[in-house]
Amino acid sequence: MSLLEVSNLTAGYGIVQVLFGLDFRVEAGEAVVILGANGAGKTSTLRALSGMIEAQGSIRVDGVEFGKHRPEKLCAAGVAHVPQGRGTIVDLTVLENLRIGAYSRKDPDVESDIAMWFETFPRLGERSDQLAGSMSGGEQQMLAIARAFMSRPKLVLLDEPSLGLAPLVTREVFTKVRELVDSTGTAVLLVEQNANLALDFASRAYVLEAGRIVSSGDSADLRGDESIRRAYLGGA
Amino acid sequence: MSEVFNLFMIGLGNGAIYSMIALGLVVIYRSTGLLNFAQGEMAMFTTFLVWTLSELGWPLPLALLGGMVLGFLVGALVHQVIVRPVGDPHEKPLAVVIVTIGLYLGIHALAKLIWGTTDQDLDKLFGGGQVDLFGTKVAWQKLGAVFVLGIEALVFYFIFQKTKIGLAMRAVASNPESAGLVGVPVTKVLMIGWGLAAALGAVAGTFLAPSSAVSPNLMQLALIYGFAAITLGGFDSFVGAVVGGLTIGVLTDVLPYFDDNLGDFASKMPLAPAFILILIVLLIRPQGLFGTKRVERV
Fold first, then answer.
1. Are B186 and A72 an interchain contact pair (Cβ–Cβ within 8 Å)?
2. pLDDT per residue as tens digits for the range A140-177
3. B186–A contact, CB cutoff 8 A
4. Closest C-alpha to B42, from B255, B266, B157, B204
5. Which of A236, B74, B177, B205 has the highest local Cβ count within 10 Å?
6. Is this model's pTM higher than 0.90 or not?
7. CATH number for the domain including A172?
């Protein structure tokens, strides 16, 4: 049984359909990427999973069907979503952003978890009382990721973390998240435009083109695959 | 001098009421990021609830508590039935603001329908007595208003800064999408915000009513002074609401003493000073005295 199993997922905005029957899965502890160009439906896929847009089809988390749901239900099921554009809560401090990440938790380890995150991302520790909105893009991305992990999820949905970041910062973010996957055993479903970085990061990949999955496989096999070039440059 | 001190204390008492209205506005602002134009009418409505309970024979303090509880329910209901279906206040801020203006008219009309337009009397919560303070007689009611305001401000500061639900409210105000994604029940949080604001309104109205009357027009003037108070203090600041309201109360009562023309002007155009102050603050320091200047790097 897969951690996340999605079949025949369709979704759209009003009368405009953007996803046409997607099938994919994520195993426990695995890093998977959905690659695609601008407008392929990457963000919509994650938003459909989170119940932020209307979607049909089957979404199973640990074998349990998730019918119509609101985002807060998904969190309770162990899925955290880092939305595009980072989604830090800019009017809260760094520390408060981490606290709110643990909102659904009732165990007493929240404070020690926060201390652990400050060790992982020292920049966040140094700026714990600073408003999140005043931090740099890379720092905000780290904070958004740390906040998602604060709910102790089984699966993190990561929406294009490279967006608006300098290449070096992007690489740093990917390295950190990879370390987190390895050390915590949390699975990550990444959607990303930057194919090279993402294929380094993930063990498996799906290629999304105009709302349909056109190929899938191990990252190593997909590297240099014709379908990726086509998905980005258009069919020919 | 004692004349000025007397006016100062009267101004403080009136200002405390403006501050209470301002606190209600800040609560809504801090959970939705919007101004609630219906705050005054929600306060008027809940004050009628207090009055109704006291007419039923409840002692006034008990009637006030009862009115606050009922007010909380009314506020929560207004959010669930009228505000929420309009949509996310962050996606459609204009639509939601217009709904609050509609609520203003609707609640006003509803109050007229239920309680009529006859002015009703409400007793003073702290009685009609006076206390001798530095040789000036000051009404207990005025001191009581300042005292209750202080408690309100402390309680709300504590709720918003030190509790989990307060953190959730601030998170929802800033970014409801991200708040929902980490498991904050956004709808419930907004509902609580509206409930708290309406409950606060009952307190403001109960202090305001004895000096005028319980009527559907109770809050018409005071709401504008509440707006002036949060503009001066900062839309998102509890401290600002308190300082802003008290400052405006004191200024409007003390300044006319020094200049007859000012007093004449203010009595002919009672709203003008509030609007002039709003304008000046927005021009010079838009975030108010204690408001957070929004910083966002991209």
1. yes
2. 988 999 999 999 999 999 999 888 888 888 998 899 89
3. yes
4. B204
5. B205
6. no
7. 3.40.50.300
